């Protein structure tokens, strides 16, 4: 089991497994962090709490490990699938599919998961406001790739090489704890 902690004051993500500790800097919400019960859609804040790992979404044309002889996709222990150009995530709380994947174009508001930048080349989906999803409490809170110097819209972002290594160690039952 992998333990992942994020110290929101220092911006350090710590991964502990098998008695070892790995640390990296991470980016959080542009407007800081907030208690989960005060989180609102579009506030650009990262919710504090413990969020279970649900699965992974990978962009096939940019996922660098695909061509690596030392990486085997069968080593990924959490549910995963390739991101498609028409994949989106509903951020419109008027819809029953709020905070769930959707196919674009979509009649409501939805974020595209197929981006021109590298932020969503690897996405770890987290169990924030998802079972059930409550309207306007925030959506699409992911652990994803980081671009140095950029904060997030509420997610947690780390450098791609760290995320690639973490991806094969994660398993269902693991959680990301933000404090």
UniProtKB/TrEMBL annotation:
Taxonomic superkingdom: Bacteria
Residue stretches in coiled coil: none
Record pathway: Cell wall biogenesis; peptidoglycan biosynthesis
Pfam families: YkuD
InterPro entries per UniProt: LD_TPept_cat_dom
Keyword Metal-binding belongs to the record: no
Active-site residues, as the UniProt record annotates them: 144 (proton donor/acceptor), 155 (nucleophile)
MF (Gene Ontology): transferase activity
Keywords: Cell shape, Cell wall biogenesis/degradation, Peptidoglycan synthesis
GO biological process: cell wall organization; peptidoglycan biosynthetic process; regulation of cell shape
Domain L,D-TPase catalytic span(s) in chain numbering: 1-179
PANTHER family cross-referenced by the UniProt entry: BLR0621 PROTEIN
Listed name of the protein: ErfK/YbiS/YcfS/YnhG family protein
Species this chain originates from: Zymomonas mobilis subsp. mobilis (strain ATCC 31821 / ZM4 / CP4)
